[in-house]
């Protein structure tokens, strides 16, 4: 089975061709690194120099695509070059192969090659000097360090810097991704919060307007129609005021930039009074005491939405609102008659129940809503439990 060599990079081809042409130029000019009279020049003459030169140029083609193979073959070529008169370009190409093997090779080779070449440089310095006792013997280790250890160490330094840059870029990308995820989650949470606020503030008034306008259109009694129109006007004015305050939160240039005070449980009396004006028979029993602001806001909105649902859907009868605090938990319970209405109703989308459940979940509380049996007949019961211990105050709307 034939072994298919990896395709060389274009830049590596340029290096190989340039180096080969440079080596051939030095060879044509007769410039060698050693005279033919040296004792260890076993292959004197001009022609033997070309074999290591061409092999080294071929290795340059593989400097990045297969760096370990290129270094092994190049090492054999540089050893062969030692026994010829030598060519300076052959040595320079070998230093590049050493550098490329560390920079582009596997991580294990990148750390192993500098250690091996460093030991060879030390051995090439100590052993010849110990054997020959000549100062010139130290040059063997110096040359080994320049040709092998120097390029290997340089390649390791460049590789470490490159890996650090890649790791920094990945961390930056991950940080940007996390920031985008946080931004998306924040936008989603803010949209959900604004949807709950808009629904809770305006739905009550619009439901009253829809019910009373239907009654005014269906009845021919002038007095009843007049009373319905009064209720419609009151709710439309109140709803418009709520909308303006909400817009003032969203737009700094709306002319209403003052912060809007969050509703508190002290306002339950006014809320119940407004529900009675709209035609509900409501009783209120509140004994919760002082609770944290987030719990207070959630409880108020749950009562407000429950009264809105009772106005739209409840049958004739009494609506009971009760709040009590016990064992670190605020319990909110609203009951209303469950059955067909005698008068006009208003359509619902179910967003109110979703909003109440979300408000309770944000405070690690519970929420339940559904029909129940009671001594007075079938009722619709809403029950929420909101922990009041260890609550961090803030906006949980």
From TrEMBL:
GO CC, any one term: membrane
EC identifiers of the protein: 2.7.13.3
InterPro entries to which the protein is assigned, alphabetical: HATPase_C_sf (IPR036890), Sensor_HK_TwoCompSys (IPR050482), Sig_transdc_His_kin_sub3_dim/P (IPR011712)
Signal transduction histidine kinase subgroup 3 dimerisation and phosphoacceptor domain residues: 190-253
Keyword Transcription regulation: no
Record-annotated membrane-spanning stretches: 12-33, 45-62, 69-93, 113-131, 138-158
CDD domains in the record: HATPase_UhpB-NarQ-NarX-like (cd16917)
Catalysis: reaction(s): ATP + protein L-histidine = ADP + protein N-phospho-L-histidine
One matching Pfam family: HisKA_3
Keyword set includes ATP-binding: yes
This protein's UniProt keywords: ATP-binding, Kinase, Membrane, Nucleotide-binding, Phosphoprotein, Transferase, Transmembrane, Transmembrane helix, Two-component regulatory system
A GO term for molecular function: phosphorelay sensor kinase activity
Protein name per UniProt: histidine kinase
Organism this protein belongs to: Streptomyces tuirus
